[in-house]
Structures are given as structure tokens and as C-alpha cells.
Amino acid sequence: MADALRALQADARAIKAAVHAEDTSKASIEIVQKQLNAGQVNQLAVLNAQQTYLTAAIIRVQTEANRLSDTAALCIALGGGWPVGCTTPVWRECAMGDAPVPIATSKTQ
Fold this sequence. Notes:
Layout: H1 2-37, H2 43-80, H3 91-96
């Protein structure tokens, strides 16, 4: 349970950093757009700023997904149960769909 709590604390810091990066890159787009309108930069600079913003947005979403996964892991650590179809001791593998799929065997009589 302590590991799950530490993971949530780390996730909170990561989300804060990801949101800051996203906000900063969005402000950068606005600055570069103004520079484009003033003729100081070309369209490629705007596209680069947009790419940076979109990358930051993806990272923020991934960070939030990690936090949700770690929150579910904490619930399980507190006795919330284990996913029925999970065959691995690593809950994140089940939650993220990376767990090995059990091979169905048919019994012949």
C-alpha cells in the first residue's frame, strides 16, 4: 500500500509538471503566431510550436492515465479486489491490456 501511495504522490508531481509544460507550449504558440503576423518568423516556426504543444498535451493525458491506474492499484491494495480475468500479479498489465491472454483449453471426455 505504501508503494501505491508513493506512486500517487509521484503522479501528482508529474501531472503538475505536464500541465505546466502544456500551458507553456500553448503560450508559445500564441507568441509565434504574433511573430508570424509581424513577419518575423515563417510558417514552419508555427508548425513546430504546434507540434510541441500537441506533444505536451499527449504527455499530460498519458500522465493522467498513469494516475488513474495507480489510483485503481491503491483501491486494490486497500482490499478492493482484483480484476476477475487478470492472470498476472502486476495489476497495471491487466489495466493497460498488456497482460498475457490465457489460452483456452477444451477438455475432451
